[in-house]
Amino acid sequence: MSWLDVILGRTKPVQPDLDALFALPSAAVTLQAATGLAPTGVGSVSYRAAEGGAFATLHGDVKALLGERVEESEDVYGYSWLVVRRAPDAVSDLVTELHAVNSSLEDAGFGPSLLCSLVSFADGQGRRLAIVYLYKRGTFYPFAPLAGQLRDNALELQARGALTGELKIEEDLSRWFPLWGAPGL
C-alpha cells in the first residue's frame, strides 16, 4: 500500500484464505466442550450464480463430484446455496467438501461471487448455531438464530469467546450478518 493510499484512507481488500476452513474440525471440538453444541453434519456454501456456459459447466461438475450428499436452494435475497450433508462426526470430510466447492468457484474465476460458507451445530435443548466464514473478509463469526428472526446474542458471544484462539474471528460485530433462512441451519 502506498503512502497516498494511507492518506486517502484506501485499503486493499483482504484476500480470502480458504485453507482457514480446515481449522473448523478442531474448533468444533472446542465449541462442543465450551457450549455443548455438536456438529449436525450439515454445511453450505452461498454464492451469487453467474450466467453462461462456463459457470453452468462448473456448477454441474461440483454437483457431480459431491453426488447425492448435496442439494441446491436459493434464498429470498437471490443467493444460491449448495448444502452438503455428512454424518455429524465427519466434520473433516464436510469441511473438505466445502473447501472443494469454494476452491472450484475461485479457481474458475468466480471468487467474487462467493458470499460465505457455514457449518451447523445444535444441542439437545434446541439451540442452533452456525460458524460462518465470510469469504470477502477471510474471517469467521458465530450466528445463533432464534424463532421470529431473533438472535441468541449471548450464545454468539459465548461461541466467540471459545473460538477466539482457534479461528480468525471477525472483530467488527456489525459484520456478523444474520443468515435468516439459511439452508441447513
Tell me what you see in this structure.
The chain has 185 residues and is an alpha+beta fold. The protein is 34% helix and 25% strand. It has five helices and eight strands, in the order H-H-E-H-E-E-H-E-E-E-E-E-H. The chain has a six-stranded antiparallel β-sheet with strand order 2-3-1-4-5-6. A two-stranded antiparallel sheet has the order 7-8. Helix 2 (24-35) packs across helix 5 and helix 3 packs antiparallel against helix 4.
Report the biggest beta sheet as strand number plus sense, adding barrel if it closes.
6 strands, antiparallel
The end-to-end distance, rounded to whole angstroms, is 39 Å
Number of helices: 5
Helix proportion range: 25-40%
- Pattern of helices and strands: HHEHEEHEEEEEH
Oligomer: single chain
Structural class: alpha+beta
- Identify low-pLDDT runs: none
Shape field? globular
- Strand count: 8
Strand order of the largest sheet: 2-3-1-4-5-6
Q: Average pLDDT across residues? A: 90
Radius of gyration: 17 Å
Percent of residues in β-strands: 15-25%
List its salient traits.
single chain; 185 residues; alpha+beta; six-stranded antiparallel sheet; two-stranded antiparallel ribbon; 34% helix; globular
